[in-house]
Amino acid sequence: MTLPEVINDILGTRTPKRIENGKTPYQDASVLIPIIGDGTEYKVLFTKRTNDVQTHKGQISFPGGAKDEGDGTFEETALRETEEEIGLAGKDVDILGKVDDIMTVESNFIVHPFVGMAPYPYDFTINRREVERILLVPLDVFHPENRDTRRDSFVYEGVTYWGVAWEYENDVIWGATARIMANFVSIMGNHLPLQGIEK
Questions:
Q1: CA distance 40 to 51
Q2: Degrees, nearest 5: CA angle 28-80-32
Q3: Half-sphere exposure of residue 143, counting CA atoms within 13 Å on the CB side?
Q4: Most CB within 10 Å of its CB: which of 50, 88, 137, 195?
């Protein structure tokens, strides 16, 4: 089985943990965890947010955002926001499943994350108001056996935040994005490739 088939099989046989939005001030949001196979290895696509956005300025994130009234489902939100931010059309994404919802502490979102395969190469169109740049991080960086890039705390603007974080080149993936990724990694376990791509 290819990795997309394995992901689809594993996510399809479990019920993701849901957080029901019964109270304000929480707002529903969705993100896409885009996985790309470039022919030699699988990579995860992240974005670095600009300092012009309302929340999580300058941080590494997945493409996504708040649910609009016109969105019929949380999956539609993830795909719409992804297209708005990086130009990846929803019709070009193969949704493989959903992982567990999380809550953000400071921005008061309930985040609904979806995993999807994105084509490679692709002509991304970045929304420069929201996204500074795209990062493609090898999936094996997050493998449970690869502890070289993983941290248990991270200092941001002089404050120490405790929780899983990963460092790749000059970027640190932390906060809600790291918690979502950690959940995905935990669900997949050793089914993630440690290196390379299936032939």
A1: 34
A2: 70
A3: 15
A4: 88
